[in-house]
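hi!! sorry for the late reply, been swamped w classes. u asked for the two structures so here they r. pasted raw, havent cleaned anything up. first the sequence of the first protein and right below it the tokens
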Amino acid sequence: MTTSENNSHHEGAIHHEDHHHLLEVATSAKHLVSTSVQSSSSHHKHFKAAESPWRKILMSLVAGAVAGAVAKTVIAPLDRTKILFQTSDMQFSARKAIEVLTNVYRKQGFFALYRGNSATMARIIPYAAIQFTSHEQYKKLFNPNNAPSLQPFPRFVAGSLAGVTASTITYPLDFMRARMAVTHRKSNYKGLTTIFMKTLTEEGPATFYRGYLPTVLGVIPYGGISFFTYETFKKRHRERNNGEHPTAFQRLAFGAIAGLLGQSASYPLDVVRRRMQTAGITKYSYDTIKNTAKDIVSEGGVVGGLYKGLSMNWIKGPIAVGISFTMYDLTKKALKSTDFFADS
């Protein structure tokens, strides 16, 4: 073999070895990329799974806030009228309620019908957000086996605890809202900040929780019955319609019935709560639930006192609760259609 042939053979062997080496490098790189992608995908899935519960909580908070704000804004004028009756000795009637609404509008203007609504929004947005979110968490707590729905008693307890949780956290805001509703802009209680500062300096911080006990005692049946009734109606609807979800109108009807039953059961304690909250800026002064209820009954009787304004509540309550439950479900549905909440 000549020198030229030897060189050519040697170069061919080198090229073959280089080609084989490049194949090995490419294969190794491909394996590394594949492993990296799989690892990244696995990590991404794990991350999404880890953050999913927090996204669910955030979604419930947002949906609850929207639901509460819309519902309370719709019935704000009726709500203020109800509080004016509850905190005075006026005898309630539908005609008298219309007169009160008309007088407020004529003497103080349209926006006076919404006086206290800023405090209502400041309270109801966190209240509804906490209530609906805590209700979801209590349902999970009472349903460790992930059954399609809770049994009746845990269903009631979950609603009651949700109401107690939200009321406890937001009660000072409810207290200030009640005081705004029974005063007018020309009084010394001109706004939420003024009410807060005057109450704090003149009556002390403990005053912000005056009336808290009747509130909690009232919210136990109210929250329990409301959530229990609404969830039960939805459950029965799914069972009778092959798993189909109720329409918006059906949700409104379910919520209206839930609100009617819940508010009727807890209404006397609501009257007691309002009297205790506004004591000091009205002509009344109360110290205990018993004495407050006793004075209310002696003043107007059981029906005319403890149930004063209930017929108005039968109008505004079902509307508010129906809108609230419906808006919560529909807002959650809308949020789930977004990329951020898609996996929640």
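now the second protein. again sequence first, tokens right under
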Amino acid sequence: MNKFLPLILPKYLARTKLTVYNRLASITTSNTTRTIPPLIWLIAKPITKLGAIIAGRGFRKWWTSLPKMKRKIFLAHLRRHRVRYGSGIGITTFTGFVYYDYHIQETPLTGRKRFILFTNEQLIEIEKLEQEQLFTIYEKDILDPYSPYVNRAMRVANRLFSANKEMPEVDCINWKLTVIDANLINAVAFPSGDLIVFSGLLDFVENDDELAIIMAHEMSHAVLQHAAEEISHSRLLDVISISLVLVVWAFLPSDLTAAIGQLVADRLLKFTLELPYSRDLEREADHVGLMFAAKACFDVRYSPVFWRRMGLANPEIIPEFLSTHPANESRAQELEALIPAALRLRQECNCYELPPHLVPPRPHLKIKKIRV
């Protein structure tokens, strides 16, 4: 539950200075010459998967059409040259391992090892499309800088940025805040440092402490470069998926069984490797975000309160193991376990003393769509 905490706490033990932070900089993760352009991956995936189906099916058709004698000759050929073919497989496997190991990096702040295929600059190219689409949809709903919503969000954001800017991982990002007038309890941070907050979130939160918890969570995604990690992990799963497709279509006896086998294999990969990984990244952002908020002297005790109220306002339809995010109650329990450490960090930063009891929640409007 607290697996990230021992690694991140020493990074935060610096005195808090509440000054306005408005610095321009850029963030990089690795050398651009060692990665494959992301658009090539996006185009190559469906083509390669189709090619694996055609190749696997072609091998099966060829094998079933062979006379019994020719099958024996082919198998004898494989046995006779098993060292050559085995060496080829071994070299290919070793090359793949070297390539994988070459792209292993440490996660900022937590020190966790992870596979990163893209540089942050390449990821920003992909994210620009999503960002432009978002701004196109909500172009008329972007609030002006003098709006009370913007003032409130800016006050919390500046407090978070200034309290954590002594960390290079935070300081090197060009943070920009946009508030959109939409009835969504949502916030999102792009790798470029664009932090977008919807007015529905500002209406839903009980106080600035809860708002800071969510904004710090989104900040953590950008600082920890989770978008690059998640896309890289997806590409790794694509390689596994394409290999399984080739094997399934080559060795299952008919097109129907191969199609069913492919569907089962894809679902197994999704439920065992893709979704749990996504939930782990969300938990890591929860943990690091809580420490960001604690260092900025917010009342971190409101973090489990927020997630429990989220669960009441929008009960989950699907179980946690089918979701990209942990269940609201799971998040509340994990954050609750981190509260003592976060409060100690808050004390180390010479924050003001908290009241012994939390302020009771006020009545609030239910929001139509909720996703954080």
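hope this helps!! also noticed smth abt the second:
The first helix runs from residue 5 to 12.
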